[in-house]
Amino acid sequence: MVNFLKFKYLYLVISLIVIFSGFFFLYRFGLPLSIDFTGGSNISYLFNKAPDKKLIEEVLKSSEINYSRLDVNKNVVNLKAEPLTEKDETKLEMALETKTQSKINTQLFETVGPSVGKDTVNKTIVASILGVFVILIYIGFAFKGFNFALSAIIALFHDLLVLVGVYAIISYFFGAELDVLFITAALTTMSFSVHDTIVIFDKIREYIREEGKINIEQSTNKALTETMVRSINNSMTIVFMLLPLILFGGTTIKFFIIALLIGTITGTYSSPFIASPLLVWFENRKKK
User: Fold this and answer.
1) Average pLDDT over residues 142-149
2) What is the pTM assigned to this prediction?
């Protein structure tokens, strides 16, 4: 039996460092929202030769198009602008072809209105709150103990904080945006975190039935020793699937896959090293 709980304060320090580092970037530099939430148009053009960014800026200015992002990467131009109609986009494409003397192929043109973005935000908040509430009720009922449910929910919030913080760092260095795919990754992280926690808690409950709550730490260490290899193996199968997608997948899903990878790692970490020590702490406080 390995005494995992011996290093519980080290686990806490590691989590605090990661969370505070991430939220420093979040507070200092922010996390840009995609058009899924703000509304606007995403346009991607493929030029037959590398365009001059200054010429593109001149066309946008003369066309009176307000934009928040303009990226030029070799022959590819990505633009995030105010909501445009198909007619506006066609005029812009023709103006760019004339100014840059290039042939352009439109790879992406999507427009989301501000009202749709606001509705997406509201639905995301409602879905997240409802998910946490249902998880709390389910674990509390299944394990017949509020401490089990509370520990799992705190670990879940830990995973979300780590995911948002690390994503803010990635956003600062690589330009990731907060979009609907990130919300999908966050909800998936919640599910994965609670799933792994339930497996460990079920084993802890089994040892408690055999030995009683007199030595909750010993029961927890036994449960962690027995389930650790299984948890790591389960997570590594997911990691091995996600890594090729990050390396060889398309740019449109790259940050979504990265968010899933972060969620998988932190979910695997939090179940034994956050949720389990919290359960022991809550149970010991209840005895006093």
Assistant:
1) 82
2) 0.83
Angle between helices 146-174 and 8-29 (to 10 degrees): 40
Task: Give the mean pLDDT of the chain.
Answer: 86
Phi, psi (5° rounding) for residue 225?
-60, -40
Q: Is pLDDT of 81 > 90? A: no
DSSP tally for the chain: helices H, then strands E: 10, 4
CA distance 275 to 158: 9
Distances (CA, A) of 153 to 120, 158, 169: 24, 8, 25
Is the per-residue pLDDT at 150 higher than 60? yes
Residue among 129, 165, 134 nearest 27 (CA): 165
For the segment(s) 40-112, the CATH number from 3.90.650.10, 3.90.1150.10, 3.30.70.600, 3.40.50.720 is 3.30.70.600
What mean pLDDT do residues 260-277 have? 93
By CB neighbour count within 10 A (0-12 exposed, 13-18 middle, 19+ buried), where does 227 fall? buried
Q: From residue 20, give the alpha-carbon distance in Å to each of 7, 28, 43, 159, 269.
A: 20, 12, 35, 13, 17
Q: What are phi and psi of 231, to 5 degrees?
A: -65, -45
Q: At how many degrees (to 10) do helices 53-62 and 86-100 cross? A: 130
